[in-house]
Each structure stands twice: as structure tokens, then as C-alpha cells.
Amino acid sequence: MAILTGRYGEVLLDPAPPASPGTPAPVAIISINAWKASFKTPKEDVTCFGDTNKVYVPGMKDVQGTIAGFWNSVAGGAGVLFDAADAAVPGFLKLIPNNTAAENKWFWSGLANLDAEIDCTVEGAPKITSDFTAAGPWARAVGP
Amino acid sequence: MTPTPDSSLVDDALTTLLLNDATLQSLLPDGIWWDLAGKTDRPPTRFCVLTHVSHTDVPVFGGRGYEDYVYQVKAVMLNALSVDIKAAAHRFDELLDDGTLTVPGYAFMAMFRESRIRYPEVDAENASIRWLHRGGHYRVQVAIPT
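^ inputs. structure came back:
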């Protein structure tokens, strides 16, 4: 393995995943050029008298992130994010840093509530962003 | 992966648009050239010069999202009447500002003027000769179809 490029990243969404034990069928969103996910765990400061350094207790992992790209009116483009923002149920999101990896193709996936924003200026292509937060367990896996 | 389109076709489409315009043919009879005027049967004295100023590929996952070009489009005239070079520059603007290009392999997004060009140039060999330059910088944006 070597360092891989993010150029071949991918974001897939199943806007209405089946209930467990059904298998979600996420589809790639078109004209996306960035995603970011955070898996930070907040820490409670429990430092006490006599401690020689600060002491923390981990809380619960907070899964959230952002998807970004360009507005594309084609089916499978930005519209799926705006539909997801209005959806009553969370979608199933799959985030891939490089979809050409021959081996150890990492991805993160899980249920997510999505927002959607569009930023349109006179000079360039309208940009879309979508913030997501976990709506169920998230996991990192390796595979297709 | 989306097939990579031929970026030179954007240059060609711009050239064709200007070449086929009867008004420009009349005002600039010595042709449309890229970068430098070429040799013709007589020294060119009224012509258009196109220059590639900048280009950016804007990526999306899976390939190129769209391409962003800036072209310099200017009329060059020798000791011309002001009215003629004004007309040529105005004609560029009529054709290109909010105009349309048809480019095989691309989906057209936008074309518009970003800035204006106007300056005189003293001939390198004869200081009594003035070359007039007028036109503009035009931005062209074309998307890769999905």
C-alpha cells in the first residue's frame, strides 16, 4: 500500500434504506468534490486534587461531517442532498476516500441526518454543502 | 470515469464564432490569429489576436467537473480610424459577453467579459506609426457532462 489520492473519493447515499436486516443500496452522488468526517469523542475533565496531570474520561463518540461539491441538476446530483434534508427518515451514507484502491478499500458508513446548503455567486458554479450527523451506529470497514 | 474532452475544441469554438461573423470579417479583413499575426500576401494591418490567458480544471470526485478559461480577444489596427476599432471591440462584446459556444464533448456554462483592453503601441521600426489595440478578457466556463 501507498499513500492514495483523494481525487477518486466518492460519496454514496441511500435516501431510504430498508429496515434491518435489509441491506442499504447507496448510489454515488454526482459532482461532489469533498467530504469530511469527524469521529471525535468528547472528554470530561475529571482532574482531582493530587493528580500530577490532567485526567479525562471519554464520553460518547460524536460522528458528524460535511459533504461538498457543485450544483448539478441531473438526477443523482445535488437534488438528492436537498431531498435528504427534507426526508423524514435518515439516509444511509457511505464515504470512500479512494474508490480505485485495489486492496484495503476503506469506507465509513452509517445512518445519517443530512442538511443541505447552496452557495450561488455570479462568478462561478453554484456550490453545495451538506452537513450530516449520525442517526445510528457508524463503522469503518474495508471492502467493495 | 468520465471521458476526458479535448480542451483545444474550446479554443476552436471561440475561433470559429469570431471567424464566421460577417461584421468582424469586414472590420478585420486580415484574419483572426492566435498569439501573433501570421504572414499573409501583404502585411496584416487589421486583425484580431486571441491569447490564452489562463485555464483551470475544477475537479470533482471521479474526474473533471468543469473548465474555466480566460481568453484575451483584441482587435489590432494600424493607424486606424477610432470608429473602426471601437466597432470591432464592440462586436467582440456583442458576440462573447453572455454569448454561447457550442463545444463537442462539453456542456456550455457561461461566457462573459471580465475586463476591457485599450492601448496604443508605437511601431518598433517607425515611431510615426501607431498600432491600436482594443478588446477584452473573456471568461469561458464549460462543464464535463455527467
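Helices of chain A lie at 79-86. Chain A has a mean pLDDT of 94.
thumbs up if we can close this ticket
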